[in-house]
Specification:
By secondary structure, the chain is of the alpha+beta class. The protein contains three helices and 13 strands. It has one domain (about 80-325).
Length: about 325
């Protein structure tokens, strides 16, 4: 087999046969086309760009622009809506749990059961909306020293028949809806907000007109234990246990001619209690008249109820120990 010189005519012919256009371009670049005798250099042809890579980059940029333009709209309009829904559901759940707390304590007192009962309260809600913007917390305070309720003779304030104190208060820390507090005091559940408070679940208090006068019945629930406070989003167990219960009925003898009685209540929500007392005593079933049969006076942090001509009075006092877990 005969070798072929690269610089020979035959070699150039072979090169031309394999790719004439490429060889001529190579010669011109190497100077051979201008009469030079140097060898032809093989210069690679530039690779074409990938259309798929360019298309992917454009798609990524368009997607980024879309997300960046939609995200502010979501944060501005949809996140607050999601937050309101989450917080409203949580507040409704917490109120139902306070109702359950009252029912459990009433059941323990009525049965005089020494067995502890645990009631769950959810302090806050974990985020279920975008980026956790709806996460809110709450605070629960058990204060056996706050507020008091007493009943005594109007004519002799030193003659005290019963007394109770203590409260449980849940306070929200909402980000999207109005703040509210749920309070358990004197056997009642109150809902308090910026516009005031109202009694949602009443205490055990009743009065009625009898042929011989007015009968009165009151159950005092006094909370005992240590002051404690918990905050966060987790579930809290409220343990309650009846420590003692007493019942006394006053009638006959000097009660036959009627006694004037006074209830004194110290509370952060005197207006709510005043409204409750008036609505309870003035209803048709009770049939008592403001001014003639009773009178209500309120002040800063207190309310006083005077009832005249009481010829029978039933007073119960229950002491309930409270612990937060």
């Amino acid at each position: 087999m005969r070798g072929v010189a690269v610089g020979s005519e035959e070699g150039r012919g072979v090169a031309s046969g394999a790719g004439g256009a490429w060889t001529r371009w190579s010669r011109q670049k190497s100077g051979e086309g201008a009469g030079g005798a140097g060898p032809a250099l093989a210069v690679p042809r530039p690779l074409p760009r990938s259309r798929g890579a360019v298309s992917g980059a454009v798609t990524a940029v368009m997607l980024l622009l879309t997300v960046s333009s939609v995200a502010p709209i979501v944060v501005m309009y949809y996140v607050p809506i999601w937050g309101e829904i989450d917080e409203t559901q949580h507040m409704r759940e917490a109120l139902e749990q306070f109702y359950a707390l009252r029912e459990n304590i009433d059941s323990q007192v009525m049965r005089e059961s020494p067995v502890s009962i645990s009631t769950k309260l959810t302090l806050g809600n974990e985020p279920s909306a975008l980026l956790g913007f709806s996460k809110t917390a709450g605070r629960l305070v058990s204060n056996p020293f706050e507020g008091s309720l007493s009943i005594h003779s109007t004519d002799d304030p030193t003659e005290i028949y019963a007394r109770s104190r203590g409260s449980l208060t849940f306070s929200s820390q909402n980000a999207y809806i109005a703040q509210q507090s749920y309070i358990y005091e004197q056997g009642a559940v109150l809902v308090a907000g910026s516009s005031g408070a109202v009694i949602r679940a009443p205490p055990h208090f009743s009065a009625a007109r009898e042929p011989s006068g007015i009968s009165l019945s009151v159950l005092f629930i006094s909370l005992a234990g240590d002051y404690s406070s918990l905050a966060g989003t987790e579930n809290v167990a409220i343990e309650t246990r009846v420590v003692s219960k007493d019942r006394s009925v006053y009638e006959g003898a000097e009660w036959a001619i009627g006694q004037n009685m006074t209830l004194n209540l110290t509370t952060p929500h005197p207006t709510a209690w005043a409204v409750y007392f008036n609505e309870t005593l003035s209803r048709p079933m009770t049939n008592l008249t403001w001014g003639a049969d009773y009178n209500i006076t309120t002040g800063d942090g207190w309310v006083r109820l005077d009832i005249q001509w009481v010829n029978k009075m039933e007073v119960q006092v229950a002491v309930v120990e409270v612990r937060l877990r």
